[in-house]
Amino acid sequence: MVIEMALACHLLTLGWNEANWDGSHPAAVPDSQSGTWEELTPFEQQAATIAGYDQSTWNAFAVRIPKGDPDQYWSKYNWDDLNLSEQRLWAILGWAASNWSGVPEAALPDSELRTWDKLTPVEQGATTKLGYEQKGWDAHVVRTPVGDVEPFWSQFKWEDLSRGERLLFAYIGWDAESWAGNQPIPESNYQTWAQLSPVEQGAAKQLGYDADTWDATVLKH
C-alpha cells in the first residue's frame, strides 16, 4: 500500500490523476506527456524514473516532429496511429476520433477556421508542438473565398486545398478522384440548398456559400 501511494504521488507530479488516468479525454492528458525527457523538470524526471521510465522509453511517447509540410505529415495518420501525447495536442484544437476521419457526420473544429492570431495561447502552444509556425498555420486554415465562390475554389487542385478545406468538401461528397474529374461529381451538386443535410449546409457555409450562391451552381438532371 505504501508503495502504491508513493507511485501515485510521483504520477501526480507528472500531472496524472484519477480523472485523466484512463486517457478517454485526450485534452485532459497532462502537459508532461507531450514533452521529451529533456523538457521535463528534474522533479518530473525523478518521478518518471520511479514510475519505470528512462530517457529512451519516455521519448518513444513524445510528440513526433513533422518532416516537411505538417499538414501532409499528420494527414497520413489515422487517429489511432497517433500516440496519446499527439492526440492530446490535436484534442486541444478540437479534434477527436469522431472527426479526424472526415466522415460526413463529423464536425470540423473551429480552430481550423481561425488564423494564428485568433488562436488562444494554449492552442498556439499545441500547434507549435505539432510542427506549425504562424505562416504555416495561416496557410493551413480554411480560406475565405475572394469574389465569386465557385470560380475561387475551381482554381485549385485537390492537393492545393488545406486539410480543413478537403474535409469540408468531403462532407459534401468530394474526394481527390471526383475533384480531378476521374469519378462522377457528388450528388450534392444536383441538390438545392434546402435539399442539403444540416451537415452539408454547415460545410458549404464554411466554404463561403449561402443559399443563393449554392443554388446558382446546382446542376440540372
Task: Report on the architecture of this protein.
By secondary structure, the protein is an all-alpha fold. The protein folds into 3 domains: 2-59, no CATH class; 70-140, no CATH class; 149-215, no CATH class. The protein contains 13 helices and no strands. It has helices at residues 2-13, 42-50, 55-59, 70-75, 84-92, 97-100, 121-129, 134-140, 149-154, 163-171, 176-179, 198-206, 211-215. Helix 1 (2-13) runs antiparallel to helix 2. The longest helix has 12 residues, at 2-13. It is elongated and about 70 Å long. The N and C termini lie far apart (73 Å). The model has no long low-confidence stretch (mean pLDDT 82).
Topology:
Layout: H1 2-13, H2 42-50, H3 55-59, H4 70-75, H5 84-92, H6 97-100, H7 121-129, H8 134-140, H9 149-154, H10 163-171, H11 176-179, H12 198-206, H13 211-215
Q: What does the average pLDDT come to?
A: 82
Report the radius of gyration as a whole number of Å.
Answer: 21 Å
The low-confidence runs, each spanning 5 or more residues with pLDDT under 50, are none
Summed up, the domain count is 3
Taking the sheet with the most strands, its summary is: none
Q: H/E order of the elements?
A: HHHHHHHHHHHHH
How far apart lie the N and C ends? 73 Å
Number of helices: 13
Structural class, please?
Answer: mainly alpha
Broad shape: elongated
Report the β-strand fraction as a percent range: under 5%
- Assign a percent range to the helix content: 40-55%
The count of β-strands is 0
Describe what is shown at a glance.
The protein has 13 helices and no strands. The protein has 221 residues and is mainly α.
